[in-house]
Amino acid sequence: MRATDPTPCPRPVDDARPEGEPSSGRTGRPEARGIDLVPAEERAGRPRGLFAVWAAPNVSYLSFVVGAALVLMGLTLPQAVGVILVGNLVWICTGVVAAAGPVAGTSGSVVSRAMYGVRGNKAVVVVTGWLISAAYLALNWSAAAVAGIGLAARLGLPAGPVVDAAVTCAIAAGTVLIAIFGYAAIVRLYSALSIALTVVFVVVTGYVLGAADLSYAPAEPLAGAALAAALGAGFTLVASAPLSYGNSPDLARYLPADSSPVAVAGWTALGAYLPSVVFTAVGALAATGLDMSDPERALEGVLPGWFVPVFVIAVIVNTMTNNGMTAYSASLSVQSVGVRLARIPAVLVIGALGTAMTLYAVLVFDFLTGVSTMLQLVVVVTGPVMAVAMTDLLLRRNRYDGAALLEQRRGGPFWYRGGVHWAGLLALAAGAPAALLCVRTTFWTGPIARIAGDVDLSIPAGTTVAAAVYWATTRVLGTIPRS
Length: 483
What we know:
The protein contains 21 helices and no strands.
């Protein structure tokens, strides 16, 4: 049935499952459910289960890299730790947005139809749910591939592009498998993996502390405008991770509809915040005593030889947990824009795109340059998108009707004007340029950032402008009823 057909349908038109195919995720079988509404009988669990779901991906090697980057920018250890503590508070935004999941009972890429309209949402999701998700897949897979390639060399495999590509593709295939098995596998598997990964990374932390210089001071301490610029860039680098997780409702949608939104937000944010703070701080500590311009070699250099393979495997597994969530949500995004694919083929499409980008990053591009550049620039989009999502949730008081959101018919509850909610698109059209004017990266510094002494103000500028424009425009248009 076409989206413009007003004839009632026995189930949402977005459900791309073949008739009779089981929908829900059991741990031992692939999850076929796509973005269709999760019925009450398939909802279970408590919000506290979200802690492990978000902890496992954030017990992360990439956190070491980001923490080290803060010190390499010229910050002292206390300054770097301060940036880590403050920047990771943005996980609260991820938690707040997650609260929409149990209420709506569908994916975040469908909930965002409330913000952008049925048609307008498609353009937004193509960027945030496809391109940016594929880029993050490539970023994390690149980190794991670098470690895996090093392990292959230790095992005596010949160096070269063939082995590099094989390692990369093997890591990508394992990740895609997690996404295929879906929600139930993620919830149960990540609970165990969060403990196992924490144990491994705590051992690494012990060796890092032995090599760290707690009295470290930069050769030329930063002051004035230079210090402000480094602090701004560091905050953007740290906060870019939580801002990228607008998919948090996807992992909460199987909870009962009456789950406490405060608990959903709190356990989501806490599960991500704690390991992110701890292991990013460890990365900063490592940079005080080790040459973290090559993080893998530096960390392996302080570990006993027998433990290095364990550490490398942990890095790879952590990457799979992180990217498993990303690929899972990206597959739902594919369906939400109207592509007539079941969820599992959609996972394969996103996985193929991310793998191609990873191979380029591993075989052609410099990894550390890619990390710094991407994490600082992507907030131009993700910051305003997160701001619109939070503002909409607060204005609606988290009242989302999943069945209504899944309607695509002309004149439906979220059709707005011509299928577009202009308040959402205008907010992004204002917020993204505001962020771009204030961003500072290795290849672009916005004019306002230059005036401010090269301080990166992209996150506060982009989020504030987007939220203000969205609030004001919805009030003028009357598209969100006051209650």
